[in-house]
Amino acid sequence: xxxxxxxxxxxxxDGPLTSSDCEDARPRKRPRTSPIPKTQSTKVQELACGxxxxxxxxxxVFDDRYLRELLQQFxxxxxxxxxxxxxxQRRQLEVVFDSKKCLVQQSLREAITKIHVAFDLWTxxxxxxxxxxxxxxxxxxxxxxxxxxxxxxxxxxxAGENIAHTLRRVVEDWQIEDMIGTLVSDNATNNxxxxxxxxxxxxxxxxxxxxxxxxxxxxxxxxxxVGRAFLYGEDGETFEQESQRLLDADLIEDDLxxxxxxxxxxxxxxxxxxxxxxxxxxxxxxTLASEADDQDAWLIHQESSxxxxxxxxxxxxxxxxxxxxxxxxxxxxxxxTFLIENQMEEDxxxxxxxxxxxxxxxxxxxxxxxxILAPLYFQTMRCQGWxxxxxxxxxxxxxxxxxxxxxxxEDWNAYFNDPAxxxxxxxxxxxxxxxxxxxxxxxxxxxxxxxxxxxxxxDHLPLHTRADFMSGRADRLASLRxxxxxxxRLSITNAWQKLNEYYTKLGSSPLFAAAVILHPGxxxxxxxxxxxxxxxxxxxxxxxxxxxxxxxxxxxxxxxxPGAEGSLNYPAIPRRTDCSAxxxxxxxxxxxxxxxxxxRLADExxxxxxxxxxxxxxxxxxPIQWWMDRRLSFPTLSQLALDVFAIPAMAADCERAxxxxxxxxxxxxLSMEPSTLEKVQCLKNWIRRDAVTLGGLYFNNRxxxxxx
Length: 708
Prior knowledge:
With 708 residues, this protein is mainly α. It has 29 helices and five strands.
């Protein structure tokens, strides 16, 4: 039985089984004369289940002698009525899950929007292929909601058709097939196939074009690809896979050379690996930092999962590299002190290879790389979170965010791409221009950065300090060697090409542009301002036509009489009543004919036409509430807008589910069945989103912290 001791699903007792042990394993029945009300015992059992789920405790946690003794101190009678054994807690999980699932299902049916499904795949620590399925929607009050619908096994290969079959099974289990809006996933080609098969199965009437329009690309995955292209070249995925292959083969020196060829970023990575690989070197680095009286934390960077385990390509995140560079620049003095001391070691085997030592030019280059990557990093952090009432993290930010990043990359490219050396003065003059607006070609002024963005901006600097700021930046550029500038230009080009590749793919669905047009704080004017060239005028027409076609096909009531929509709230001709004019005279035949034609023209204006005539954009942070307030005026267009604003920008909630599942699947719980893990993680999501209560207790409104 020794092989059974590795998991917590079965733990043999220290001695032989007794009759009392067997009795405790059976469901405990409440005596008929119990003084404890059933509602109270049910509440305690739900709270016990919540404790296990929320804190990732093993099901046998209440077998602990000290905890049992502690609980008995409060109410011996109540304690004796509750089945505390491991098997009882596992059964209680089933009961609670089933009862709470009904409540979540009811909230899904009461959603005022379509339910948008985000999904992602993962390999669990106990080697199961797992797919996370998450639903996004607006509730009755217009609040954005997210529910984990499944964390289930994905049988067979990761082919699109197989994944589609799993997704179909999930939505059928929840009975929401008729409520599905879009699919949100990363940019893998098998997900294109998955979307096609999925929508064909749940809604056979959809054409191939209709199915493509409902496949939404995860913004986080796009940003990840762009960041990797900037850091590792055109094929960053292949580079990282080769590094992993070398590590798996224990070819450490080859891996160091592999990273060293990537320039200062690769050598910085080798330095940090060198320090962290030895407790003695780590301790020495801490000592040097302490001696320098540095108040910063010692942690060099937040270590990515790629350095801890074999990974799927879509699990790799470039963010940790940005954080590594940013923290290394803050700790530059400590690193240089450590390296100087290390190079003086008598034993050559204890020294960092001389090829990995960073020189002053390398540090200058790292400063520029960090500056260029900062907007990309902040876009990632902004959109992966959960904004309040549509503020961020939703689909309207994808197109605007990509436009912003394209602008940034093009400006940086112009900054580093002047062989005559005149870019410094030109850039300085451009940045000190009072309007501080930068646009390509004949385009008009650029809108201000999105409200809430945290990117460092010179706009926040007092006018009298900007010259000194730009002078320092210009001096940095002048001090860079030409080969460093060439390195930066190549990195910018790689990132721009990758970003532009996916920017052009946004045209496959009208919903990306529709999210901008239907945002009253952006509107069609935002795109008109951005897309002003002859070629871009075609993009603008396509965006407007795509929105109108989608609305006409799926939202507008074509059976209604012309002028029926919104006519109660928008009278054809506003009339002013003049009481002093006496009785109203009777209209002549000509006036009746003229007014009838005028009223008909006004009534025949569609909701979309009336929306385009509004004085937009307006300063607004909450597009959802804006449309909620206008549901009577725009009954069908508001429904489309609300459906669109329920679409998440990323499938980040699926990755959160994977991260939380890893906390549950510790090395002592690897025998847990996937079905049990699914129930634990779904319940954890529901209680932390306040979708359900356990023991009558909401999770967040009692001062507890949220999932983030």
